[in-house]
Amino acid sequence: MAGTRRHIGDLQGEIHDLFAELWQMPRFAAPRRGFLPQCDCYQTEDPPTLHVVVELPGVDPSSVQLVVSGRVLVIAGSRVPPEVRGARYQQMEIEYGAFQRRLELAEGVDAGGARATYDAGMLRIELPLARVALARHRVPIDVRER
Fold first, then answer.
1. Pairing of strands 115-119, 143-145
2. Cα torsion 83, 54, 112, 144: sign
3. Under DSSP, is residue 113 helix (H, G, I), strand (E, B) or coil?
4. In this predicted structure, what is the pLDDT of residue 84?
5. pTM of the model
6. Which of 1-10, 56-65, 86-95 is least confident?
7. Mean pLDDT for all residues in the chain
8. Euclidean distance between CA atoms 72 and 100, whole angstroms
9. How far separated are the first and last CA of the chain, in Å rounded?
10. Where are the alpha helices (DSSP H) in 1-135?
11. Domain ranges of the chain
12. Domain 31-82+94-145 adopts which CATH fold?
């Protein structure tokens, strides 16, 4: 019985702490889901290429890591909020923080021939499609600014 009371007391303390944190959050702030960039993928035939376009406004392209592992393209990085001294937010909707997207690729992607460019907040990745299936291994891709 004493053990049960202690667990109930612990639970009450955790609930109290949770409500205390909620009241410290500004009223306009909704629970944050984290930054998840939007992606478009499409193929072209001449030359046979898989194109991936990722919205990354406000992301430093040097912080983006691109890796192809098997048939999966991993896009990772972070968007850091600007440092504003003495500011009191009235509204905060822009998502910040680390992100990661994992996209399954079509069969026959030649990751070794991939190119990536970053321009005006858009990351564009071109992955040539080989006529013969290639060995699956981990391949990093460099991001270049235009």
1. parallel
2. negative
3. helix
4. 86
5. 0.68
6. 1-10
7. 83
8. 12
9. 68
10. 2-24
11. 31-82+94-145
12. Immunoglobulin-like (2.60.40)
